[in-house]
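Thread title: Can someone regenerate the structure for this chain?

I was given the following input by a collaborator and told the matching structure tokens would be attached. They weren't. Posting the sequence so someone can regenerate them.
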Amino acid sequence: MILPIYLYGKAELRRATEEVPQDYPELKQLVSDMFETLTNAEGCGLAAPQVGLSLRLFIVDGSELGEEYPDCIDFKQVFINPEILEASEKKATYSEGCLSLPGISENVSRPETITIRYKDIDGQEHTETLTGFKARIVEHEYDHLEGNVFTDRISPIRKAFVRKRLTDIAKGKTVAKYKYKH
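Best answer:
Regenerated them for you:
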């Protein structure tokens, strides 16, 4: 089932998230619905707060980015109760967008490499080191679990340039080609 994506201005995007309990009802269905929603919206990551749930859960699917970032072609994962353990001091800057902020993209500087611990859909714990665009996708989605969006990471002058567009999104003066909720 395709879920509505919550847009900038919705309180759910700024709320603290809670751990996903091991016995969370219909977790596999939720993850399936999130992947269907992500595919429909043509994104590469989706966090639970973006579908109105204050849970420490996000999904990624970098397969559509494979031509530009070959390491992402098979990068389709579920991250439950993730924790970034380490982040490199070396940073990389790329343009980012977000399904919750349609029509906005800005350059964002993030650590080039991270080490993350998380559980998969079967409850198995993993610790992984990610670099490059894989790390960027995960860091972007992880920010959602912390109540942040990518524009929180841009310079004050760039933030001033996008402020009106953010305000318009929050007021419902935007359109997206996917199901959304103001």
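The beta strands are 5-6, 45-47, 57-61, 76-87, 91-97, 105-111, 113-119, 125-131, 180-181.
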